[in-house]
Amino acid sequence: MLENTGRTELSSLGEFGLIKHLTRFIEIKNESTIKGVGDDAAVIDFKNKLTVVSTDMLVEGVHFDLMYVPLKHLGYKAVTVNLSDIYAMNATPRQITVSFAVSNRFSVEAVEELYAGIITACNKYKVDLVGGDTTTSKSGLVISITAIGEAAAEDLIYRDGAKDGDLLCVTGDLGAAYIGLQLLEREKKIFLENPGVQPDLDGHDYILQRQLKPEARKDIPVLLKKLEVKPTAMIDISDGLASEILHLCTQSEVGCNLYEDKIPIDPSAYNMTREFNLDPTVCALSGGEDYELLFTIDQSDYPKVKANPDITVIGHMTHKKEGMNLITKAGTTYPLTAQGWDSLLNKIA
Amino acid sequence: MLENTGRTELSSLGEFGLIKHLTRFIEIKNESTIKGVGDDAAVIDFKNKLTVVSTDMLVEGVHFDLMYVPLKHLGYKAVTVNLSDIYAMNATPRQITVSFAVSNRFSVEAVEELYAGIITACNKYKVDLVGGDTTTSKSGLVISITAIGEAAAEDLIYRDGAKDGDLLCVTGDLGAAYIGLQLLEREKKIFLENPGVQPDLDGHDYILQRQLKPEARKDIPVLLKKLEVKPTAMIDISDGLASEILHLCTQSEVGCNLYEDKIPIDPSAYNMTREFNLDPTVCALSGGEDYELLFTIDQSDYPKVKANPDITVIGHMTHKKEGMNLITKAGTTYPLTAQGWDSLLNKIA
Hints:
Chain A has 349 residues and is an alpha+beta fold. Chain A has helices spanning 14-22, 71-87, 108-125, 176-193, 205-212, 219-227, 241-252, 267-275, 280-286, 302-305, 341-348, and strands at 33-35, 42-44, 50-59, 92-102, 128-136, 142-151, 167-171, 233-236, 255-259, 293-297, 311-318, 324-327, 333-335.
C-alpha cells in the first residue's frame, strides 16, 4: 500500500519542506481563524462565544491496521472522530491542529495520502487546519489531532445534566463499525494465509464505510435546534453504547434502564453478526466507533423526537439507587456494571 | 528507571481508571477554564480576547532517551516547550491538553512520574490541564501536547513583521542545552561500555538543567511591556538560532546580519564545547532546544533594551536582497542559507 510508482523519501524534503509541501493548498474557511499554519501558534477570534477543545491520539497497531486501512481513509477518520467530540458538546468545530510521527518506511506520497484524507474531512466539515507538528518515529505511525470549536454558553450540553425520568436517545444505528472491523480482520487473515486470494468485501459497503470512513453527526445539533429540543446530557459513542451510558449515569448521578429491543441496528450489520456467530446487541453495546450521539431529553420533549427517523428512544434514566440495567428481549433484567462486561455479554450472547 | 518497589500494571486500572487516577488532584487555576477534564471537550471563555493555539509531539528515541531523561523531567519539558510557543506570540498560556501513548513496559508508577512533571509545570506556569487522551502503544512513548493561550489583538507578535534596519535581539544564552545533551550522550556511552562506572555529571548543573528541564520565558512578555517595547517579530528558539533567523527573514521578507561575537553563550557551556572539540558558535546556531525568544525591534527602541541583562542585540535586519549573513569574529562574512548548514558549520568550526 505504501509502494508507489514514484516514491519520494521523506528525508528529501526535511520537516519544514514537508510541512510547506503538505499545507500549500490550505484555504481558510472560518472568519474566526485569524492566523493559521506558519507561526509559533494559531490565533482564533471567537468574540463572545466560548472555546471548546478536544483531542485524540491514534496509534498504528492499536487503533488502525495499515494492511486494510487506506491512508486517506485514516486521515479522514482521524479528523471526524475528533469533530464528533465537539458536536457531542452541541458546539460547532472551527479549527484543528494535526500532529503526526512517521517512520522512514513512509514515503512523501504516503504522507500526502494521509494528508489528503485530513483535508477532505476539513473541507466537508468546514474546519480550518491551523497548526500541528510533524516528526519522525522509530516505528509506527501516530496521529494526534486537537479540535477547537465554538458555542454560545446557553447551547452547551455536558454529560452531567441527565435526571431521573429523562428519556435516553441515540442517533443512527449501532454496531456496524465493529462488525465491519470483524470482516476486515477475517479477510486479512485469509489473505495472510493465501496471498493469492483477493479479499471478498463485495456487498458490505455499509459496514465497511462505518468502520473505515465514519462521519461525525454535524446534522444533529442543527436538527435539535430545529426540533426545539435541548438535551439534558450528551456524549458521542466512541467506546460502545454501554461504556457511554456508564459515563452519563456516573456524571449525572442517575441510573438507567436500557431496552435491548429498542437498540437500532442496521439490517446488513445484523445479518453479518449472525455470520460471525456474534450477538448483535453485544456488538452495539461494546463494539464502539459508531460516532453516533447519545443523549437524554426531558419526557415532555418526547412528542418532538418520536417521529424522527434519525433519533431512537432506547431507554430512560432512573434513580441512582436502581443502577444501570439492560432489559433483554425476553424481559430479563441484567445489571450493566463498569467492570465485567465480558461476563454480562456472555450471558446475553 | 521504570522499575519500582511497587509496580502496578497499567492494565489493572484500564484507560478510564488511569485517567481518573492521574487527574484526581487537578485544580482549576484560570477563570477562563469553564470545564476541564471529564467531558467530550473542554470549554474555555476568553471573552473579548483572542485564542492562541500551539501543539507539539515528542517521540521516544527521536526527542528523548529514557536512559538519561527522568520521566518527571520529560513531562515538565513537554509542557514548557509548548508554552514557549505561546510566549513567542506575546500571549499568555492558560490551558493545555495532554495525550500520550505508552506500552506495557511502563507501569502506573512510571506514568505517574511523567504526569507529576506535567502537573509541576502546570503549577509553575499557572496553566490548567483541561483534557487529553491516553492510549497504549506497541513500542515507544509518544507525548502530544496542545497549549491554548489568550492575548489582546494589539499585543500579538507574529513572525512576519521584521523590517530592514530592525535590531535582532535574543533573550538569555544559547547552545547550553545542546552541550548538555552531548554530555549525557557521552556518559551514556561510557555507562553502556562499563556498566559499573557511575555517570560523572558533577559541576555541570547549568547545561544539564538547560537540556533536561528547560523553562519557557514567561518573564519576557512582562518585561517587554514594562520596557514599553513591542517587538516587530518574534519566535522561540527550538531548532537553533540559525533556523529561527531563517523563519523570521523568510516570513518578514528581509535579510539579516548576525554578529558571531554578539551571540550570548554561558561560560560553563563555552568551556564544555571546548572539551568536546565543538565550536561554541556552531552549538548556538544549530544546537536548538534553548527555548529563548528571538525578536526584532525598531532601532528607536534600542535605548530601552541596551542595559537589560536579559536581552542581547546580536545583529540587524537588512534588505532582502542582501541575504542572511554571519559576520565572524575575524570579520569574514558567510552566507547563512536554508540548506547546507553542515558545510557552513564546517567552515566556521
